[in-house]
Structures are given as C-alpha cells and as structure tokens.
Description:
This protein is α+β, with helices and mostly antiparallel strands. The protein is 63% helix and 9% strand. It has two domains: 204 residues, no CATH class; 143 residues, 2-Layer Sandwich (Alpha-Beta Plaits).
Amino acid sequence: MSDKVPTSWTIRWKLWLSKTLNAGAVNDSFSNTSRRAFIINLFCLVGVIFTGPLGVISLLKGNLLIGLGLLSIASIYSLNHLYLRKTKNYLFSANVILYPLYALMLYLIYSGGVNGTGHVWIYCIPPVSLFLHGLKRGLLEVFLFILALVFILFFIPSPFDRYGYHPDLKSRIVYSFILISFLSTIYEYISSRFNQSLEALSSKLELAATTDPLTGLLNRRGLEQQMVAKEWLAPTVMVLDIDHFKSINDRFGHEHGDEYLKLVSKSMAGFLIGQKCLLSRWGGEEFLLLIEHQGDNKRFADALRNTVSNVSLTTQEGESVCTTVSIGVSELKLTETLLTAVGRADKALYEAKSHGRNCVVLASKAT
C-alpha cells in the first residue's frame, strides 16, 4: 500500500503540471501557437516561483519598492495564466509577460537589485522576446532595450554606482547582452526556418494523405475528414462509375485511361461549381459525390451524367476516347453512417449497370 501513494501523487503532479503548462493551447500538437502557449505558461509559473519569494525576501530586508514590484509581477503572471487558460489569446498574454519584464529588468539595472545583483537577470530578455514576438518585432524590442540599458548605465546617475563595481563592468554588461541577443537571434532564425519547413512538409503530407494524386480530387479519407466539418441535414450521396473503363485501358493503354480520368474529374468539378458538395475519387474509375441538394435528385444526376458523357479525349493517332457513366443515388439519413448510405447507392449503381449502363438509379426505385 505504501508504494502506491507516491505513485498516485506523482501521477497527479504530472497531470497538474501538464494541464498548467498547456493551458490555452489551441490543440494538442506542438504547433507554433501551442509552443508559445507552453512557453508563456512556463514563464508565468517560473516567474511566480522566483519573483514571489524574492519579493517577500526584499520586503523583509526593507526594500519596499523592489519587494512590491516583484510581488506585483508575480500577481500579474498568475492572472495572465488564468486569462490565457480562459481565452487562448496568447498574443495578449505574451505582451503581459514581456512589457512588465522589460520594466522590471530596467529597474533592476537602475537600482542594482538585491545586493547589486539585478543585472544578472537581464539575459533572459533576448530569447524570451524573440520567441514570443518573433524575429522582426523581437529584435526591435531588444534593440530598444539595449538603448535604454546604455542610457541607464552611462548617462544618468543611479543607485547601481554605489556598489563600487569595476568601471569596466558596465561595458561588459552591454557587450555580453549584445552577444546573447546575437546568439538568440541566430537560434530563433534557424528555429523559425526549421518550423516553416516542418509546417510546409506537414501540409504536403496532409494533402497527400487526403487527395487523390491522379485527379487532384479528395480521396476517401479526405472526403470523410471534410464531411465532419459540414452541417448538412440530409445530403445526397451519388456513386458514379465510368462504363466500360477497362476496355479503354485495354484498347488505348493506361496512360490514355489516366488522362481520361483527369478530364472526367475536371468536367465534374466544373459542373459542380457553386454547389455545396464534396467530390472524391472513391477508387479506380468510381467517384463519390456528397452534395447538399434539396431539389430533384434524378434530374440533377442526369445532368451530371450527360456532362460526363460529353467528355472526349483525342489520342495522338486521332482516335476519340469517350464513354458513358452510371450513377447510383441515395440520401444520408441523420441516424446512419456515410458507408451505410454509400452501400445503398452502390446497390442502386449495380442496378444501373444491369439495366444497360448510362443511366441513373435512385436507391428507392429504378428509373
């Protein structure tokens, strides 16, 4: 029994930490937005852990202004975490992180901080600013911070001077800050380029996974995926099959067969412009059309059939490649899956084939 208690607490701690650090993330993937939300939450957590106790210590040592400033930062970070958790507005939360941080760091430089150690904290500025605000805006803010840093150290008298540091320390602080800024810029540039390449590759892979490479139409997965986002009450399902397609491949070759499929796909896509629909290559010479069409399904399907029947491909030898199409039609009911409706449309398509092809059959009756 004693072994289970630590394990239970460990699991609870890990779950709490995971929920805290990922609060406000738009999804579970490690996208740029989710990464920024993660960093904001991490910075809020670390900021509260450090500034809270340091604020209390400063108050106990009589440093009232520094103590209240640190406790104010801790309060702001706590509220910022709650705001991000509720709204997912990471852009605003990033500003809440950075601008009080800039002010606090400049004040620590001016005042010297606790026992003259204030300047050691400023090196967190470049990486955090560049990550949360990006290269362009982040670099501008880091540059302005450097100007403010130089102004405080070299052009105005400040409590920092009373600690009796070596005269070269001020220039060393500026030089080292510039070096950290330069290294952070290089890292963020490489990281951003890598993330852009990764996102581009991810988009290509997603497109490849949901698109038929020959026709450019959706494939099965793509249609099922996009269908989830639609809010159609009772869409019409049409299964279209090119008649005698095997004979086209046998007579003209697969190259011309593929070109013919491309023309058919282009023709159907042109016919469907303006319609609320999803068109996919369901497999081989078979296509699936999911359309929110409340009119005469028979008339609409016949018009589509005639459009496809008019498609013609001329070979290099001057021969014409053309054929007809058979269509099975059903309706997707609210209580059933897509495959169930497709199954009924398939049966209607088989009936259309048995009736001599080049016709439309509704799932409820033959026409």
